[in-house]
Write a structure and sequence with these properties.
- This protein has five helices and no strands.
- It has helices at 4-33, 37-63, 83-110, 114-144, 149-161.
- The protein binds MU-OXO-diiron.
Amino acid sequence: MIPKKIEKILNEQIEKEGYSSNLYLAMATWTDKEGYSGIAKWLFAHAEEERMHMMKFVNFITERGGHAIIPAFEKPPIEFESINKMFQQVLEHEKYITGTINDIVALAIQENDFATHNWIQWFVTEQIEEESSVQTIIDKLTMLGEKNMYIFDRDIMSLRDSE
Ligand code: FEO
């Protein structure tokens, strides 16, 4: 059986991953409305990945004999200041998520829950990749500047393909 404290923290992560998915969906629809279909495509794909992350938590809790609770999600923002600022927000959000994954690692060690400790390592690696891919996007945006948004919008999916 899954330790109660672990079940609780993993259930909290269902909400965080689900909110991440909705946040990126909100960013995708705003970006599409602003005319950047390439960036929107990247964000839609990222939202799908976050839903997959959420489902990993749902499935793991269930497999371990726990009860995965599907929560309400806070409403994400509707509008964003600029493409640049939006990607900074993505990076900050991913850093926050990395912190929450680290909290799960720490609790798994504290509770001697080696199954969870082993399982959560996938997310530890995933967070390194997520932060790095968003940082690459921010670097490219800085390099190209606001005047070259057309090129950035056209090429952003190739950054994803090379991950
Ligand atoms: Fe599921 Fe982007 O963290």
